[in-house]
Amino acid sequence: MSEKAILTVGDQRIELPVMKGTDGRLSIDISQLHAQTGLTTYDPALANTALCRSAITWIDGEQGVLRYRGVPIEQFDQAPSFVEVAWTLIFGRLPTRAELDHFREQLTANELLHEGLKAQFQHIPADAPPMAILSASLSNLACFHRQFIDVEQPERLVEAAARLISKVRTIAAFSYRRSRGLPFIYPDPSLRYCANFLHMMFSLPYRQYEVSPQIEEALNLIFILHADHEQNCSTTAVRVVGSARANLFASCAAGVSALWGPLHGGANVEVIRMLERIHAGGMTPEQCIRDAKDKTSPFRLYGFGHRVYRNFDPRAQVLRRLCDKVFADLKQPDPLLDIARRLEELALADPYFVERKLYPNVDFYSGILLRGIGIPTNMFTVCFAIGRLPGWIAQWKEQHDDPHSRIIRPRQVYTGPGESDYVPIDQRS
Ligand code: SDX
């Protein structure tokens, strides 16, 4: 028997269908509510609203579980391959070896930037925010690859996805090189995805950067852990733009802009700033906790809390363990890691955080790891975007392939004035 929800408003009694996900969770289907009753529901941050049906990623916020196409993220740490996870998210299952090899070839074939797109970097100020460069460059890909503005044919989408995933590394590395006044290092087709990114970031014309296997593995895992996360803020931005049938490049550029926010992907930068301030003696961990609880201060304990997780973010757990491994391999203890551990210990023992179920999220340890690899702080959110790009593409494709998808256009609760007349300017007080 299918479940029903009964809504009584005044003398109206409305029966609403109830949907059940494959996880057994129930959602009240209000998709016909306004058409049938003229009523709307109010949910300003969409915290109670399912925007879509999706089969890509699943989170259990209470248990701290995250699965990509059903596979728990912890299982991807066996010889982690970001490219394999990207294919899995976009195409819905684990690839065969032949499919993975073909995808790798497509990424290699598309790793260069059009020289016209490369030229834009010369006119960008050296201190330009890398996320601004990334968002603009992804949008600009539509100028140099106009054949992918119309991605109605499936093979066009696969090609556009491979170009995006491959070129995002090159764009990111070139923006870093520009910021340091260094010559651009072209991609090396003999290198795997993450090794090539590190090569473009850190090699010099006269000396190839030697990528250690541990660092390459760590970066694969960091990108994997950021690859998708249900209907988060930036993914919702990608879906909203894509719902108007805007092209994939423009939709992902919107995702970059949303991710830039300090409450979202920009938090990994704020975490390091917070830890460095404590390390420099600007404040103590105890003071940091006090400030985070002070409602008169906009300061928050960055890297803590989450809209969905009411337990440890499983990604933070993996990253925390990865920190131990990487810093042991590098044989360089990081004082910021000790400070992060101290902050975590204080917060998890503090009723303010415990009562609100605020735990470390993906951003709490990711910055420490990226910093340990040698990635500069202003590139952290760019690295988050590189990791998240396959998720944005997968979500955009899922919506694009859905024959029932419509342009996303919410309603509002109007609080403005009633009808009023125009007053000519010389008659206004
Ligand atoms: C990401 O959605 C996703 O999946 C995002 C993401 C992904 O992979 O895409 O997981 C990536 O964005 C992780 C989050 C990174 N952001 C930060 O670390 C910034 C610090 N965190 C907070 O700003 C906050 O926790 C959010 C933004 C993450 C969640 O915000 P919510 O769900 O709107 O929670 P809220 O602001 O309503 O907080 C509830 C209460 C409030 O206090 P009260 O009004 O109950 O007194 O908890 C407090 C908040 O003030 N609170 C915090 C806090 N987070 C929440 N207080 C201090 N420090 C914090 N970090």
Task: Provide structural commentary.
With 429 residues, the protein is mostly helical. The strands form two sheets. It has a three-stranded antiparallel sheet, with no helix packed on it. Strands 4-5-6 form a three-stranded antiparallel sheet. Helix 2 runs parallel beside helix 8 and helix 13 packs parallel to helix 16. The termini are far apart. The site of s-citryldethia Coenzyme A (SDX) has 22 residues, from helix 16.
Strand-helix topology:
Layout (H helix, E strand, L loop, with lengths): L3 E6 L2 E9 L5 E3 L4 H5 L19 E4 L4 E4 L2 E2 L9 H10 L5 H13 L5 H5 L10 H15 L9 H26 L13 H10 L10 H13 L7 H11 L4 H12 L7 H13 L5 H9 L20 H17 L4 H14 L2 H5 L6 H12 L6 H22 L28
Antiparallel strand pairs: 1-2, 2-3, 4-5, 5-6
Helix pairs in contact: 2-8, 2-17, 3-6, 5-6, 5-10, 6-7, 6-17, 7-8, 8-13, 8-16, 8-17, 9-10, 9-17, 10-17, 11-14, 11-16, 12-14, 13-16
The chain binds s-citryldethia Coenzyme A.
How would you concisely characterize the structure shown here?
The chain has 429 residues and is mostly helical. The protein is built from 17 helices and six strands.
Defining key terms:
mainly alpha, three-stranded antiparallel β-sheet, binds s-citryldethia Coenzyme A
**Unreliable segments of 5+ consecutive residues:** none
Number of DSSP strand runs: 6
Approximately what portion of the residues adopt beta-strand conformation?
5-15%
Ligands in the model, by name, code or SMILES, are: s-citryldethia Coenzyme A
What is the averaged pLDDT score? 95
| Alpha-carbon Rg, integer | 23 Å
Helix content, binned percent:
40-55%
Q: What would you call the shape?
A: globular
Tally of DSSP helical segments:
17
End-to-end distance, in Å?
65 Å
Biggest sheet record:
3 strands, antiparallel
Report the order of strands and helices: EEEHEEEHHHHHHHHHHHHHHHH
Biggest sheet, spatial arrangement of strands:
1-2-3
